Amino acid sequence: MKIESLRTHPLTVPIGDLQRTSQGSFGEISILVIEITTDDGITGFGECLARSAPKAYAELVHDRLEPRLLGADPFAVEAIWQNCFRTFTGRSGGVLIEAIAGIDIALWDIMGKALGQPIHRLLGHMGRERVTAYASSIAWVADDQAVQQIEHALARGFRQIKVKLGAPVEAALARAAMVREVAGDEIRLMADANWVFDLDDAARVARGLYDLDYFWFEEPIVPEDLRGYELLRQRVPIRLAAGESEHTAAGAAPLIASRSIGVVQPDVARSGGITETRKIAHLAHANHVAYAPHVGASGAICAAASLHLAAAMPNFLTFECMVFPNPLKDELTTLIPGDPDQVVDGGVAVPSGPGLGIEVDRTALKRMAAN
User: Fold this and answer.
1) Catalytic annotation on 294?
2) What percent of the chain has pLDDT over 90?
3) Which of 21, 61, 179, 197 has the largest CB neighbor count within 10 A?
């Protein structure tokens, strides 16, 4: 079996003001879908996190990475990953690793289909057919809108909910208290600041969240400030979560090894695909840090790949189940992976079909094509 062809599908959709964070509103979101076909007719799909300019990602894939793929054995995922990584020199990260992520996910999809097995079985699964999930996220919007979002998440059966927080400190703590009041004491709550605070203000918010019995405080400060995370962890008792901005295991290693965080959150469509994200999760496991995949405003392929990793990683904690309308997740495949309307006992099903276990809707690929 050899890789015969590669196609790219840059996609962009509007999402309005539904997922406002401390950094503002997306307005529209993009991804790049990669389609790889073998010489015996097996097709695999992957997804690159491409928040903007998905056509630029496609150009990189075709010009620099595709020549390294054609004719290769799709089962040689590690060799292919390293070969693509050597496209450029210098510190790992950025668009290159996100592009490799889409290729890597597509190769795992091919391997699973060729063997007639779901990816989580290829990874050495933990026997999980369903995984615990949290509703993500209660947006940084007006209080009445936030209350509606909380009530909607509870009505769907979620037992864990994440809320977005913004500045100033007083507004963040008021929102956190309101969410606790509406959700009740039995619901596990997490907070995500999208790195809007400096160290001192983050410490103030963290103490308030601890008093409100929040489970974790996510990205309180900028991801580059590793020393800041160490200092913050020394000052506050709440569990910190981070890692969605990391691209590789080497990049995530200092954050994990410092034990500044209790939860690492790599995004499979950013952090080099399944091959590299698995390394990050195993590195975290070796350092007694939990793994909770980041999905965010990504598409259905990212969600499916994240569910397979969730089913297979020994230190998996909880799955980010996005609850705001997103055509890239809701319309790209015939069945929605991690469907928030299919929550049972606070969890969602892991795809059981071969490969990713999803079927991409080609009419949706055309409908959502970036202009």
Assistant:
1) yes
2) 92
3) 197
